[in-house]
Structures are given as structure tokens and as C-alpha cells.
TrEMBL record:
Originating species: Bradyrhizobium xenonodulans
Protein name per the record: DEAD/DEAH box helicase
Pfam families: DEAD (PF00270), Helicase_C (PF00271)
The Helicase ATP-binding domain, residue ranges: 162-350
Keywords, ordered alphabetically: ATP-binding, DNA-binding, Helicase, Hydrolase, Isomerase, Nucleotide-binding
Transmembrane annotation, as ranges: none
PANTHER family, sorted: DNA HELICASE RECQ FAMILY MEMBER, RECQ-LIKE DNA HELICASE BLM
Domain Helicase C-terminal stretches: 375-529
Signal peptide range in chain numbering: none
Length: 855
């Protein structure tokens, strides 16, 4: 294994020493790959890539051991000169003929404020800064996933809520980047199997489609090592046969889970999804990065907003219970939540799980430089000194291509470029190389990185100003997912700021033009019901002032409808696709072409339900749109202010982000637990903000129906609106308690068991009780944890008390059925002079329970 000590020996004897087969971590693995390539292929060493990696291991070793680390390297041949080492912040001293002793120095560029230097030290040091909030995972999910813990209480509540959400309803999930949101979508498939109903996961980029599908395939292979795993990603490079195979699997209930873009779901996949919905084979619709539904700028994608209508149409097609919808994001502003309520409502069918803490890993630096050539030199200087791996973010595709050319010219050959026009084949290759540590840096636009789980990214460099603080934080969030410090440095000019303003300006239609477009679409609409309130609209219709149809025109028609939906004037709907049949004498190629043309026309239509009768009254219409435009412009104005504050470097970044995300709307409350690994303000006062509090984490309160009829039937004298006390013998025998709990699960539908931590850890038999549940699902609660944060699920519950005092909240929990197992001597917390078993008539003996359970 390549470690610091073995690396020292290898470089000191270069090239005569054998190379280990693996590196001890990602950085050493990268170094090993470079050296192996030089040895095995006889190529020149990629010095531009090797030097920053050697700087990384030298600084890390120095910081962790608190002594100056050194490596002995050749000083002749292809190896760098003393001056070349110095360009990478490495001091080289001649110690023998043909050898240097090198050491890496802290980087303190003269163009940064003194209080902001040195840069990157904590990122090199790699000390854990994320607080450990892991919780034991529910045994039924441990069995299915192979995981031993939930990442946090927030992840636990989100996953459980996904299982408990009533059919046909919507769940909003807001968890920080790196907190395991992916498991919310994965868990039902892992537990129920590929034939337990389809989960369709809609994600914004092809990169994320491929990465999420790769991760899910790995989990499924571990779960079903001998099973056949279907293709889990729908993307442009699929062959016709592969597309047909996926559609057949969807219709036959064999697909299990599929990752796709919003354009694919609202397009090519829709006929198969309607068939699955009609046959009850659609279980979940998951929209990842749901904050994009409120995006109005240049990145507006109508398919994201059209998902709301497609969802309604698919729900209408379900003959039985409808599928569940889950909308997930690490960053949800109040404006975004309000948009979600408008598009995916009605709001009373939407519940929310939010447990937000700001990331403690990123450390922030901001520097302005208005001269382009000087700014480029400073970006290059940062890249030479930065920990690996890194992402260099820019705004424009041309800038991404330009920077890749610059980096390659500077000797950084292990870099790639990723933007919106990167082909699918190249995307898959880049993601694979990134995951295998074969790439040290990526130059990217916002098309790369969202949701991709590369855990050891150490540096995020912005050579442009992101159009919003939200996007900035999303991109910074690509670093430090392993809980260790990451560096964020933003180098920008005034021109970059102006570009950001242009990109972030809401592209909102005026009231006058919106009414004109709506009137034109309404005039050409097809009435689908007798009342004329359900309309099929043609997005290709052209208002009188325009001359011809274009994608631009269709996009603005869609923007008009989205604005009306956000103003609650209409609801987006969908209609089942009508399939076309193939003529007897028609070739397969001709049929495919005609079929594609048919669907191309079909997807230029959309269906809406009119909610307000005043939509034809221009003054009423104008007022509704004006109010909605004002709300959007207010949100944009707040963002511009926060972006100015970010670039000014005079306000703590944690305070900026708290202003952006905090929400006090009833039922949508989002309290932010602030943290900051270090920013200009913190460094000026000489402190950090790492002692952040554990954020609140509550599950949903309204859950699917539960059947407690048999318990009522067996014990009609008990009042299940209050806790039922089941007295158990003393001393308590764990095997007897497990048997009683098993009967409650198997016979009476209990789905939640709470017990003291000592009993849970000392009684492994509890881990198999979920196998007795009819649906294989059973939640395990800690009584100690509940003392400060009671759970809120409305499922039948059993609580095991092992004597001693009773936490008062136990008697106050609201459950459809709550059975408390307690020794007869347990004191009543509300009446100190009597026992819990003496509190009234709602008490049952163990013999009575056994008789009822056997009946």
C-alpha cells in the first residue's frame, strides 16, 4: 500500500523500487497512478499533475504530525528544477548528487488580505469537522441496504416518512448536501424489490442520471447478488432495443427504479408510465433538486414545471391508490416552497420533512480582480497550490473550454471539461474517471456536480460569479462530503457580477403579453369537459404580434402557463397518450419515424384546469399576474442583495445563507442551524462557527391508513384513544418481552417499537421482529432520544419500559394504538403515590393479552 513512508522510499530510489498495488487513500492512489503509468508505459512523468499532489501529501503530513514533512526526489532528467518546484509552493534543497529534499510551504499570496492567509491549511489537514449524528438504522432497512446507521435523525425521518406517506400525496424533503437524500428514493426499492412497483426518479442532469443509477445498481447487486439488474438510467445514448426493453419492463412491473431527465418523463417515457399507472405499477415519483422548479432565468426548462401536470394526469389514471410524490433538495428557499405548493398541491396534501444545518466543511475566500489576464494568473496560482481533487466552476460553456485548454497547456493533463453540451458518452467516461480518481480536476458549468457523490473533493474554485447565492452554495457543497474541511475560493471581476445579474434576472412575461398569449391559447383550445374548464392547449399557437412558431414562442407560452399556475388561476394537468398503430405494409423504420413525429406533436400540447372564472377579464388577469411577478422580483431582489453581501466579504456567510433559507410559513417551517468553517469575517475576528446545534428532525404526522380493528375486537373494554398499559412480570425476561412484542407486530399491526437503548443493544432478537410484520416494516425508537424529541408518526406503537421512572412524554403521545409494556411496580409519573398499573381501567394483564393474541 502506498503511504507517506513508502512514497519516500520509492521517490528516493526512483525508478528502481516496486510500486504498491493500491494507495492508502484517494490522494496516494492518484500519485500511484501517475508513477505506475511512467514505469509501465515508459512515458514521461506528468509533473504538472504530480507536483500539486506531492504538495498535498507534504502539507497534510506536516499538519497532522506537526513537523515539517519532506520527500527526497531526483533533481535531474525530467524532474523539476528548484524554480519550478517553487511555483507550486514547494521548497527544494539539494542534499546529494542528483537529489532534492522537498518540503511544502503554507500559501500566503500577496494579493489576499493578511487575515485571510495562509489558504487551504485546514483542507490539507483533513480533520473531521462534521458532528456525528448517526443513529441506528431500522433493522428492516439494514437488512435491505447493508447500512448500519442513518447519517442523521433528519435522514431517518425522511426515509420513514417516504414509507408512511399516504398514497397520492406529496412529501417535500430538505436535507443538507451529503446527508443521504438518495436513500429516500432507494429505500422502498431495496425493501420491496424490483417488482414492488416503479420508482421513477427525475433528476436535472445526465451526469446525475448516470451517477445515481450507478450507485443504485451497486446496492441492488449487493442485495441480490444472483439477480439480474436492469438498466436503471434513461439517456440519449440508449439503443432502440434498450429503450424498448425499459418500456416493456415498466409496463410489466419489472423495472423497479429508473433515473431519467424531466424531458424524458414528460416525453418518450410517458406512454409506458400511463400504462403502469393504470395497472397500479407506479409507486413513487421522485423529483431530485426540486428547487429548480422555481427557476425563471436563462436556465428555465419547461419540462421541470410540466412535471406537475404530468403527475396530476398520472394520478388521475390510477384506478387504485395513487403513487406517492417526493420532492427533494438541499436548498429550498421560501419562494421555492411556495412554488411547489402552487404546482404540486393542493397544499393540504403536501407534507414536509426539513432538517437543515449549514455545512461546516467549506471555508470561504473571496477576491475581486477586474483585469482578466491578472485574474487568470491568480486562478492558475490557486490551482497550483490547491488540495486535490478540485472543481473549477465557470458560467459559460466557452469559458469551460477555454480553461481546459489553459490547464492542459500548463501541464494539468488529468483534467476534464463538463458542460451542457458534453456528449453522453463523454459524460459517462468523465464520471467514471472521476469516481476512480483518474481525474484530479474538472472544469465545469452548473451542468456538473449536482448530486454527484464524490466524497473527497477538497477544493471548489469559482472563476465567475454564480447567478444566485443558492447556486453558489450548491456548488460549494460538492466539496467536503466526507465531513472534512474543503476550500472554496471565488475569484471574480465586475464583469462577472454583471453576467450574474443578467442570468439571475427573472425572465417573466409582462401582464399585457401574458394576457395576449393566454387569450390566443384559450381561443384555440380544445374543451375536454362539458363545463369547458378542462382545456387542451397548443403550445405552438402564435399570438397576433408574432409571425411564426418557434421553440422560443412555445417556451414563452409555457412560461405564461407556469405564471398562471403559480398565481393559482389554473392547474397543470395531463392526458393519457393515444397510441398509433402500425400499418400492415409499413416498414419498421417508417413506423418508428411516424411514431416519433406523432409524439413530437403530442408533446407540444398541454392540459390545464381553469380555477378562476375571471381569467378572461383583462383587469382581473393583470392583477393576478402582477402580484405573482412582484413576488418573483422580490425574491430576485433579495438574492441580488445577498450576492452583493457575499462578494463584499463583510457579512458572515452563515448569516447570508440563514437569510436565504429560513422559512416561517406554517406547515413549511424551516429553521437553519448555522455553521461556517471559516470566512473573511470569521478570520478577521479569529474564530470559526463549528459548534452548530443539531437541527430539528420530525417526521410526517399524517400517514397512510392502519388497521387496528382486530385489537378493538379482542379488547373492546379498552380505550385505545389513551395508552394501554400491559403489565409484565418482574424481573423482566428479554426473550419473553421479544415474544410479546412479536405478537403485537404480527397480530395487532404495531409498526413502531420504543425501548431503552440498553435493551435495544443487548437484545439482538429485536432485529428480526420486522419479519413478522405483514409489510416487513417496523421502526425502532430510542426512549432516551425521545425524551428531548418525541417521534410524531401516527402508527400503532408499543413502548417497553424496564422499570424506574417513566418519561412524561410517553403518556402524551398521540397514536392510533399505544401499548405500554411495564412492570406492575412502575411508578405513575403524573401521580407519585401510585403505580402506573393503578391508573385506571385501561390496563391489561399478560394473561389477558396472551388469550387475545391466540384467539
Amino acid at each position: 500500500m502506498l503511504t507517506f513512508d513508502t512514497l519516500y522510499d520509492i521517490l528516493a530510489a526512483w525508478p528502481s523500487r516496486a510500486m504498491p498495488a493500491v494507495g492508502s487513500d484517494g490522494v496516494f492512489d492518484r500519485i500511484r497512478q501517475i508513477l505506475v503509468r511512467a514505469i509501465s508505459d515508459g512515458e514521461r512523468i506528468q509533473m504538472g499533475d504530480l507536483m500539486p499532489l506531492l504538495r498535498h501529501v507534504l502539507r497534510r503530513h506536516s499538519i497532522q504530525t506537526m513537523t515539517m514533512a519532506r520527500l527526497r526526489v531526483p533533481s535531474t532528467g525530467e524532474w523539476p528544477s528548484r524554480d519550478r518546484w517553487a511555483e507550486f509552493g514547494i521548497r527544494a534543497q539539494a542534499v546529494a548528487t542528483g537529489q532534492f529534499l522537498i518540503e511544502a510551504l503554507p500559501w500566503s499570496p500577496a494579493w489576499m488580505a493578511e487575515t485571510d492567509t495562509p489558504l487551504f491549511e485546514d483542507a490539507f489537514g483533513e480533520g473531521d469537522v462534521r458532528l456525528d449524528w448517526r443513529r441506528p438504522i431500522d433493522p428492516f432497512l439494514a437488512e435491505a441496504s447493508g447500512f448500519g446507521t442513518y447519517v442523521s435523525p433528519g435522514q431517518r425521518e425522511a426515509v420513514r416518512s417516504a414509507f408512511l406517506l399516504p398514497s397520492g400525496e406529496t412529501l417535500i424533503v430538505s436535507l443538507p448536501t451529503g446527508s443521504g437524500k438518495s436513500l429516500v428514493a432507494q429505500a422502498p426499492v431495496l425493501v420491496r424489490g424490483l417488482e414492488g412497483g416503479l420508482t421513477i426518479c427525475v433528476v436535472p442532469t445526465t451526469a446525475l442520471v448516470l451517477d445515481q443509477a450507478r450507485q443504485m445498481a451497486e446496492l441492488l447487486r449487493a442485495r441480490h447478488p444472483r439477480g439480474e439488474i436492469p438498466a436503471l438510467a434513461w439517456h440519449a445514448n440508449l439503443t432502440p432495443d434498450a429503450r424498448l426493453s425499459i418500456k416493456s419492463a415498466i409496463r410489466e412491473g419489472r423495472q423497479g427504479i429508473l433515473y431519467c431527465s424531466p424531458e424524458a418523463m414528460t416525453g418518450a417515457l410517458l406512454p409506458a408510465l400511463y400504462d403502469a399507472a393504470r395497472d397500479g405499477l407506479l409507486s413513487y415519483l421522485v423529483l431530485d433538486e426540486a428547487h429548480l422548479v422555481s427557476q425563471w432565468g436563462d436556465g428555465f426548462r419547461p419540462a421541470f414545471q410540466m412535471l406537475a401536470g404530468v403527475r396530476r394526469g398520472l394520478l388521475s389514471a390510477c384506478e387504485g391508490p395513487g403513487f406517492r410524490t417526493i420532492l427533494m433538495s438541499a436548498t429550498l428557499t421560501p419562494d421555492t416552497v411556495e412554488t411547489i405548493d402552487a404546482l404540486f398541491g393542493p397544499s393540504h396534501t403536501i407534507q414536509m420533512v426539513a432538517s437543515i444545518h449549514l455545512r461546516p466543511e467549506p471555508q470561504y475566500w473571496v477576491h475581486r480582480e477586474n483585469v482578466d489576464a491578472i485574474k487568470d494568473r491568480k486562478v492558475l496560482e490557486a490551482i497550483r497550490h490547491a488540495p486535490r481533487p478540485f472543481i473549477l466552476y465557470v458560467t459559460k460553456r466557452d469559458d469551460a473550454r477555454r480553461w481546459l485548454t489553459i490547464l492542459r497547456r500548463e501541464g494539468f493533463s488529468r483534467t476534464e471539461c463538463f458542460h451542457g453540451e458534453t456528449g453522453d458518452t463523454d459524460r459517462r467516461q468523465i464520471i467514471d474517471q472521476w469516481s476512480r480518481n483518474a481525474i484530479d480536476g474538472i472544469v465545469a458549468t452548473s451542468a456538473f456536480g449536482v448530486g454527484i457523490d464524490k466524497r473527497d473533493v477538497r477544493t471548489i474554485i469559482h472563476a465567475a460569479v454564480p447567478e444566485t447565492v443558492d447556486r453558489f452554495y450548491q456548488e460549494v457543497g460538492r466539496g467536503g462530503r466526507d465531513g472534512r474541511p474543503s476550500a472554496s475560493i471565488l475569484l471574480c471581476s465586475e464583469a462577472d457580477r454583471e453576467i450574474a445579474d443578467h442570468l439571475s434576472a427573472p425572465a417573466l412575461i409582462s401582464e399585457e403579453l401574458a394576457f395576449e398569449r393566454w387569450s390566443t391559447m384559450f381561443a384555440h383550445a380544445k374543451r375536454l369537459d362539458a363545463m369547458g374548464s378542462l382545456l387542451e392547449l397548443d403550445l405552438d399557437v402564435v399570438p397576433p404580434k408574432l409571425r411564426q412558431q418557434s421553440d422560443y414562442n412555445a417556451s414563452w407560452n409555457m412560461r405564461t402557463l407556469i405564471m398562471m399556475a403559480r398565481a393559482k388561476m389554473i392547474e397543470l394537468e395531463s392526458r393519457p397518450p393515444e397510441m398509433i398503430s402500425r400499418a400492415e405494409d409499413e416498414t419498421e423504420a417508417a413506423f418508428d419515424l411516424r411514431n416519433e413525429e406523432h409524439w413530437a406533436r403530442y408533446f407540444r400540447q398541454t392540459v390545464v384546469s381553469v380555477l378562476k372564472s375571471g381569467h378572461r377579464n383583462k383587469s382581473v388577469f393583470d392583477q393576478q399576474i402582477r402580484d405573482e411577478r412582484s413576488r418573483s422580483f422580490d425574491a430576485a431582489a433579495l438574492n441580488r442583495k445577498l450576492l452583493d453581501d457575499l462578494l463584499g466579504g463583510k457579512i458572515e456567510i452563515s448569516h447570508l445563507l440563514d437569510q436565504l433559507y429560513r422559512n416561517h410559513t406554517p406547515g413549511r417551517t424551516l429553521i437553519v442551524s448555522t455553521a461556517c468553517g471559516g470566512c473573511p469575517v470569521h478570520r478577521e475576528v479569529g474564530r470559526k462557527d463549528l459548534n452548530y446545534t443539531e437541527p430539528l428532525a420530525y417526521g410526517i404526522e399524517r400517514v397512510g391508513p392502519c388497521d387496528i380493528g382486530f385489537f378493538r375486537e379482542q379488547f373492546p373494554h379498552l380505550n385505545i384513544a389513551a395508552p394501554v398499559i400491559l403489565t409484565v412480570p418482574e424481573p423482566m425476561d428479554s426473550s419473553s418481552m421479544v415474544k410479546i412484542l412479536g405478537d403485537l407486530v404480527a397480530t395487532f399491526g404495531v409498526r413502531e417499537i420504543a425501548a431503552p437503548d440498553a435493551f435495544r443493544t443487548g437484545t439482538p432478537e429485536l432485529g428480526s421482529l420486522h419479519t413478522r410484520a405483514s409489510d416487513g416494516m417496523l421502526f425502532m425508537q430510542s426512549i432516551e432520544e425521545e425524551a428531548s424529541r418525541p417521534s410524531s408518526y401516527g402508527v400503532p406503537r408499543a413502548t417497553l419500559l424496564c422499570g424506574g421512572s417513566v418519561p412524561p412524554h410517553i403518556l402524551l403521545l398521540d397514536r392510533p394504538l399505544h401499548v405500554i409494556l411495564a412492570p406492575a411496580s412502575t411508578p405513575d409519573p403524573l401521580h407519585a403515590s401510585r403505580k402506573l398499573a393503578e391508573t385506571g381501567t385501561n390496563v391489561i394483564s399478560l394473561d389477558q393479552f396472551k388469550l387475545g393474541a391466540r384467539t
